[in-house]
């Protein structure tokens, strides 16, 4: 027998793959009994994991990943910045995201001039201009922070997600692509991602991007671009640069070989990948 929809959903919530859990029952009542036994066992396991988080782990896997990536990038000469979550409509427009742009409808507006950032790039562009006035080169910095998009696909998308965006500016023109790959490999290595590959994709905002794909379904975990880029002139950026944006939840899910993102998202249903309503 196959699990009922409700049973399958609950098994999934509790971290089990319903298709991988056998259901050797011959009638609904037997099936129900079996389900309750499995659920009870899994609830116990989940409670133990939550208790361990409180008493031992203390940092979620997401926080640990964020710390590890931060340390690695600082070691490679990058400085960490924090910029505002609320950005202006005009900053989005400089990224070509205006009413006619597909991403425009995914933006959360808080009033007619401001929104929650759907990406870190506008703020990082602004920093590139200001820091670019300094004589020192290369200039390397990164941000790790929340971004917000209205999304329809729940398996790979969260409304709020954590982006790591790094920028290296003032590099050699003929080395920018190889440097981008090098930087992607540094981040992937630090995240414990071994099995990944690069793919060239076309993006609504960045034109052509170099994407990093990984995980059992080969999902995009990062998108990178190099400059001089068509967006640069709107900001007044003239340096040669390489930059890449990574989704931390996707890095985590791909690294763990998982197919859905939900339990790693920022929400009140899961804590450190463990279902809370147990
Ligand atoms: P996708 O095509 O998968 O929706 P994207 O190309 O729109 O992603 P980018 O704008 O390139 O995403 O953002 C950089 C990275 O941020 C992505 O590679 C992905 O890892 C992550 N990301 C983007 N949107 C989301 C989301 N809604 N939830 C979780 N991670 C996301
Ligand atoms: Mg992309």
Brief characterization of the structure:
By secondary structure, the protein is α+β, with helices and mostly antiparallel strands. Helices cover 35% and strands 23% of the residues. It is elongated and about 70 Å long.
Q: Can you walk through the features of this model?
A:
By secondary structure, the chain is an alpha+beta fold. The chain has two domains: 5-58, no CATH class; 61-264, BirA Bifunctional Protein, domain 2, CATH 3.30.930.10. Helices cover 35% and strands 23% of the residues. It is built from eight helices and eleven strands. The chain has helices at residues 5-13, 28-57, 61-75, 89-94, 121-131, 176-190, 232-235, 248-255, and strands at residues 79-81, 86-88, 114-116, 139-148, 160-169, 196-203, 207-214, 219-227, 241-247, 270-271, 274-275. The strands form three sheets. The protein has a seven-stranded mixed sheet, sandwiched between helices. A two-stranded antiparallel ribbon has the order 2-3. A two-stranded antiparallel sheet has the order 10-11. Strand 7 and strand 8 form a beta hairpin. It is elongated. The relative contact order is 0.14. The model has no long low-confidence stretch (mean pLDDT 96). Adenosine-5'-triphosphate (ATP) binds at residues 119, 149, 151, 156-158, 161, 163, 203, 220-223, 245-247, 249-250.
């Amino acid at each position: 027998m196959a699990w009922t929809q409700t049973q399958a959903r609950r098994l999934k919530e509790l971290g089990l793959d319903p298709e991988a859990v056998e259901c050797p029952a011959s009638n609904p009542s037997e099936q129900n009994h079996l389900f309750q036994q499995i659920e009870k066992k899994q609830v116990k396991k989940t409670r133990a994991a939550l208790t361990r988080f409180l008493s031992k782990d203390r940092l979620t896997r997401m926080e640990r990943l964020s710390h590890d990536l931060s340390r690695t990038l600082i070691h490679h000469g990058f400085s960490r910045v924090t910029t505002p979550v609320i950005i202006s409509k005009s900053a989005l427009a400089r990224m070509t995201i205006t009413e006619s742009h597909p991403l425009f409808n995914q933006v959360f507006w808080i009033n007619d001039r401001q929104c929650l950032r759907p990406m870190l790039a506008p703020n990082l562009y602004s920093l590139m201009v200001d820091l670019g006035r300094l004589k020192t080169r290369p200039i390397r910095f990164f941000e790790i922070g929340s971004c917000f998009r209205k999304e329809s696909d729940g398996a790979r998308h969260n409304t709020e997600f954590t982006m790591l965006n790094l920028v290296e500016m003032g590099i050699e023109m003929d080395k920018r692509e190889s440097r981008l790959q090098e930087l992607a490999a540094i981040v992937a290595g630090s995240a414990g991602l071994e099995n990944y590959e690069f793919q060239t994709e076309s993006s609504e905002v960045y034109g052509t991007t170099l994407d990093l794909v990984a995980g059992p379904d080969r999902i995009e975990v990062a998108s990178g671009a190099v400059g001089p880029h068509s967006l640069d002139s709107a900001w007044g950026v003239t340096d040669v640069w390489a930059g890449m944006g990574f989704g931390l939840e996707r890095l985590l899910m791909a690294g763990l070989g998982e197919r859905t993102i939900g339990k790693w998202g920022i929400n009140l249903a899961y804590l450190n990948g463990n279902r809370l309503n147990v």
